[in-house]
C-alpha cells in the first residue's frame, strides 16, 4: 500500500476498532491462476499475545484447499470513504489550483492463513460471530435457536479459516496534508452532503 507519512495510522487500537466495526474483509492470497480474493466477515481475537482473524468459507470454495502450507495472506478492512470536491477548498476562489480527491480509512492485516476443518472449533466461532453481530438487537438470535440436525448439516458445509496477524498497517487519508482552514471547509462539506458515510468521515477528520 502506498503510504505517505501524513496518512499513516499506526495505533493498533484504532485499527482494531475499525476492523471490529467493519468486519467484512477482502481476503487475498496467491491462487493457482494469480491473485484470489474472497469477501468474508472476520472476528478479531486477541489470544496468547497474538491478533487472530477468524471466519469461515463454504466447503465448495476452492480457497481453503490452497491453505495446506499456511500461505501469506492479506485481509483488507475498509472504513468510511467519500469524494472530496474542489469546491470545498477555499483556494478554489483564490487561484483555482485545486483538484478532486478521495478520503478514506483502511486497515491491512498480513499473516499466515490456515484452514480449520474442525466442527467443534467452527461451532464456537459461529457462536462468537453471532453474539458479536446480534448484540444490538432487542431479541438477539442465537445459533442454538436453529434445529440441531440443521446446524449439523450447515457445519458440514463450511470450513474455518484463521489468519495470524504478523503485520498491521493503517491508512487514514483525512486531508492531513491540507491547512486547517481547508480541513474545516472539507469537514463542513462532508457533514452537509447528506451521505451517511461522508458524515461519519467528517467526524474522524483532525482539527
Automatic annotation (TrEMBL):
Pfam families, alphabetized: FMN_bind_2
SUPFAM superfamilies, per database record: FMN-binding split barrel
Designated name of the protein: FMN-binding negative transcriptional regulator
Listed InterPro entries: Split_barrel_FMN-bd (IPR012349), TR_PAI2-type (IPR007396)
Domain of life of the native organism: Bacteria
Organism field: Chromobacterium piscinae
Amino acid at each position: 500500500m502506498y503510504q505517505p507519512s501524513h496518512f499513516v495510522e499506526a495505533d493498533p487500537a484504532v485499527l482494531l476498532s475499525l476492523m471490529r466495526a467493519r468486519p467484512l474483509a477482502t481476503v487475498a492470497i496467491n491462487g493457482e491462476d494469480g491473485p484470489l480474493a474472497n469477501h468474508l466477515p472476520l472476528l478479531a481475537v486477541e489470544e496468547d499475545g497474538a491478533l487472530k482473524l477468524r471466519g469461515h468459507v463454504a466447503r465448495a470454495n476452492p480457497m481453503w484447499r490452497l491453505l495446506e502450507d499456511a500461505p501469506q495472506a492479506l485481509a483488507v478492512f475498509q472504513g468510511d470513504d467519500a469524494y472530496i470536491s474542489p469546491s470545498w477548498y477555499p483556494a478554489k476562489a483564490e487561484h483555482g489550483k485545486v483538484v478532486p480527491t478521495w478520503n478514506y480509512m483502511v486497515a491491512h492485516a498480513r499473516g499466515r492463513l490456515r484452514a480449520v476443518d474442525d466442527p467443534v472449533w467452527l461451532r464456537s466461532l459461529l457462536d462468537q460471530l453471532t453474539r458479536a453481530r446480534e448484540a444490538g438487537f432487542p431479541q438477539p438470535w442465537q445459533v442454538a435457536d436453529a434445529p440441531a440436525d440443521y446446524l449439523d448439516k450447515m457445519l458440514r458445509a463450511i470450513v474455518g479459516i484463521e489468519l495470524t496477524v504478523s503485520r498491521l498497517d493503517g491508512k487514514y487519508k483525512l486531508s492531513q496534508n491540507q491547512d486547517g482552514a481547508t480541513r474545516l471547509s472539507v469537514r463542513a462539506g462532508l457533514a452537509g452532503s447528506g451521505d451517511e458515510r461522508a458524515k461519519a468521515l467528517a467526524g474522524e477528520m483532525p482539527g
